[in-house]
Amino acid sequence: MTCKMLIESDPHQARIAVLEDDRLTEIFVERHRHRGLVGNVYKGRVTRVLPGMQAAFVDVSLERDAFLYVSDVAADVEAMEDLELGEPGAPSRADLAPAQGGGAPSIGDLLKPGQEILVQVVKDPLPNKGARISTHVTLPGRYLVLLPTVRHVGVSRRIDDEKERERLLGILDSLPLGGSGLIVRTAGEGRGREEFETDLSYLSRLWEKVRQRAARLPAPALLHQDLDLALRVVRDLLRPDFSVLWVDGEETYERIVEFLDQVQPSLVGKVKLFRQGATLFEQFGIEDQIEAALKSKVWLKSGGYIVINPTEALVAIDVNTGRFVGQRTLEDTVLQTNLEAVQEIVRQIRLRDLGGIIVIDLIDMVEPAHREQVFASLGNEVKKDRAKTKLLNISEFGLVEITRKRSRANLERLLTQPCPYCAGRGRIKSVATICLKLRKELLRQRGRTGQGGELLLRVHPEIARALQHEERAILEELERSLGLSVLLQSDPELHHEKFDVVEV
């Protein structure tokens, strides 16, 4: 499998595409005006302590005071080994924070109003809620996560080989930690001491800059801003098996080369500056693939198709044979469609970053061996996904349930907004329904109109056409009942379901 990464940057946004065998599998978008705060480190001042909520508010120079739970002051550091900071699909520290109780210290014993503390944002603010913060700073590198405020060493639990874990812990024990803690990230599996030393040196210099700014600046103040999207994705995803990293934008190209020269010089040679006339995404057909990823129906090469319907509670994915009729038996046709479908389904899940509960409705298979083959294929495809995912076996109804940890706003929410016509319902009232509603409304206002005049009815062109043809009987009834002529005016700017009535 050939992997490529494309980075396209302009003054307004950065977009990053990951391709496997020239097919888009992941897309990242960051609008510069809406850059997130997660990972930023601040020097803050406690403004309020709320013992009843076991929490405190901290001024960190944002629009709203940040929110600090007691569990984020005294967190379980061993739970941090579950973190893949900066990687898609990772649980946040907030998700891993231990429940209150069990003799945990009170927030009032830990913090006082006016106290200055060093904090890091773990959840972005919402429209009616401030950012969530933690006093445990974590600085992710390429292979290591530095815990400058905690003495703890560990290995990501996603590295499950015991011999490898022991080897990595041995390397950590030999590194000069200086009172800090370290956790090996999943990308550190198989790496040697020299690579860890380079990563630790970079992270130590970064932490020293944070400390110097903290000593110099009064609270509240921003001490460290997390890397922008381009550098974060390069840090977390670029591997030696990538054939090339194309960058459209000279300034971004130079920053990436400079960054890789510090963290992994061996990858600098893979970075290429794109200089052709067309944009990078157009050259590789990314724009068309993004447009296709916003549609509910996805066609398969065989002629079958899948339908993806996100709902409030879950994502439903349906598999259909479509135009594919097969060559041998019905059971063989069903098997081939399901095998092709599960590959495309996992690609779409990764591309759209679908999360929560996902239910796949496969075409029903009679043969148990075919069910096992399809489920094994699904499991192999899911292994390509870095997000934390769990699968349940195919049920007797042909359903597969998946839970997947979402890492960011999914593609649909990122690039679209609710339809102003249907308000997110996905459907609007039919032409016949609107004509009947219009009839009912005009008859209800019968006493307010004079006799013998004219009534101007401004409607959408589709409604005007229906009233002049298949729904002509409604228009004739209104003229008889109201005792006046009804004139139609088409207005394409008018909402499909709306209409205006003017007496002339």
Molecular structure report:
- With 504 residues, the chain is an alpha+beta fold.
- The chain has 14 helices and 24 strands.
- Strands 4, 5, 6, 7, 8 and 13 form a six-stranded antiparallel beta sheet that branches. Strands 16-17-18-19-21-20 form a six-stranded mixed beta sheet, covered by helices on one side. The protein has a five-stranded mixed beta sheet with strand order 3-2-1-14-15, sandwiched between helices.
- Helix 5 (229-237) crosses helix 6 (250-263), helix 9 (330-352) packs parallel to helix 10 (368-382) and helix 12 packs parallel to helix 14.
- Residues 75-102 have low confidence and may be disordered.
List keywords for this structure.
504 residues; 6-stranded mixed beta sheet; 25% strand
Brief account:
The protein is of the alpha+beta class and 504 residues long.
Number-wise, the strands total 24
Overall pLDDT score = 86
Strand-residue proportion: 25-35%
Which structural category fits the helices and strands? alpha+beta
The radius of gyration over CA amounts to: 29 Å
- Give the N-terminus to C-terminus distance in angstroms: 71 Å
Number of DSSP helices? 14
List strands and helices in order, with pairings.
Blueprint: E1 3-9, E2 13-20, E3 23-31, E4 41-50, E5 55-59, E6 66-69, H1 93-96, H2 107-110, E7 116-123, E8 132-134, E9 139-140, E10 144-147, E11 153-155, H3 162-174, E12 181-184, H4 193-216, E13 221-224, H5 229-237, E14 242-248, H6 250-263, E15 271-273, H7 280-283, H8 286-293, E16 297-299, E17 305-310, E18 315-320, H9 330-352, E19 356-361, H10 368-382, E20 389-391, E21 399-404, H11 411-415, H12 431-444, E22 454-459, H13 461-468, H14 472-482, E23 485-490, E24 500-503
Parallel strand pairs: 1-14, 11-12, 14-15, 18-19, 22-23
Antiparallel strand pairs: 1-2, 2-3, 4-5, 4-7, 4-13, 5-6, 7-8, 9-10, 10-12, 16-17, 17-18, 19-21, 20-21, 22-24
Helix pairs in contact: 5-6, 9-10, 12-13, 12-14
